[in-house]
Amino acid sequence: TGCFDVEAVRRDFPQLHREVNGRPLVWLDNGATTLKPRQVVEAVGEHYASGTSNVHRGAHALAKQATQIYEEGRAEAAKVLGAPDPDEIVFVRGTTEAVNLVAQTWGRANLGVGDEILVSAAEHHSNLVPWQLIAKERRARIVPVPLLPDGQLDQDAYRDLLGFRTKLVALTHASNVLGTVPPVAEMTALAHRYGAKVLVDGAQAVAHFPVDVTALDADFYAFSGHKVFGPTGIGALYGKRELLEAMPPWQGGGNMIDSVSFDETSYAPVPHRLEAGTGHIGGVAGLRAALRYLSGLDRRAATAHEEQLTAYATAALRTVPGLRLIGEAPGKIGVLTFLLAGTDPIALAGALDQQGIAIRAGHHCAQPALAAYGLQAAARASLALYNTVQDVDSLVAALQGIQAEAAAS
Ligand code: PMP
């Protein structure tokens, strides 16, 4: 596939070269988490083996070095999102914590009785439940933006639902169940006409195509390190500076203050004001390495490789008798959700696992999206830039075998 050297990339990912159940691992569970290149493993190892220190405190060489790596990690996160200023990046545990932070601070300060939060029906539970929690507290309303049968959001409905009561639109940049990529820039521009803010969930986007929050004009944008070849437990929230500055603190503690007394406490400037306590320094070391790894690749070629592989996989899966793909809108990322007639999705994933093929089955933390198709569970193969035609062929051959067995019994 083009000039993208997938074999060279695969050599960087040690886990791709292990076996599971006596068979070479075929990792098609990238929607759940991505594998790590050795550059990330080494960066995390180095932090703990010889670079351990807290950051922003302690006048010694290791504190300075750790602080530098930490702040370079922030700059890498800004760069991968196209954010103009690293101080617009708040470190969080992941996408889930990013959304909760915005809901609990911005939401508590800005939502009132009867206000509306538009939540797309494609959202992961992490971009829905935090809004339900704050909506209940503030007596605001959650309004779903419905899906069309092909997995795209219904733009006519969206236009009708937007109004001056809309305060926030919660929108995924790529659905983890349907793979669909909504027109975020257009939807954001429409929301802004009503003065509403837009929070974009980039958990499934950043690893798969170049992101530019400035071009999107997103107010908030969240992603998880572990889905971009980095460690678990670290992620980033981008927020426009004026929004972050106006947000009340979330958690209180060390690092986030300017001065403290029993009479009065004042807070540090953003982003530190929103980062109470010692951060995940080893995680940031790994995230920095992951984002440097990603930006060292030819991103356009990597995206083209994934697009070609997605088209190949879609066509190949269609050849399996009794297989039904869910969500087939053009421009989708490599998320292939499907049902196989006569087999339960969970049992199907178990049978594939016996052959070393890792996929996910279940509700994918997006029950409303599956419910839109009348489903409670489905199987999902999800691709990343290191997957190959051989991976897809292994999956399809295994599915054909499972299908033939199910048909015979
Ligand atoms: N949003 C989407 C679209 C996701 O796929 C996921 C993870 N499956 C999340 C949010 C939540 O990410 P995390 O669990 O890393 O916080």
TrEMBL record:
The keyword Transferase applies. It is an enzyme of class 2 (transferase). One of its GO terms (molecular function) is pyridoxal phosphate binding. Keywords: Pyridoxal phosphate, Transferase. It holds the Pfam family Aminotran_5. Its cofactor is pyridoxal 5'-phosphate. Transmembrane segments: none annotated. SUPFAM superfamilies: PLP-dependent transferases. Its EC number is 2.8.1.7. It catalyses: (sulfur carrier)-H + L-cysteine = (sulfur carrier)-SH + L-alanine. GO terms for biological process: cysteine metabolic process. The keyword Transferase applies. Residues 26-395 form the Aminotransferase class V domain. Belongs to the class-V pyridoxal-phosphate-dependent aminotransferase family. Csd subfamily. This is cysteine desulfurase. It comes from Kitasatospora aureofaciens (Streptomyces aureofaciens).
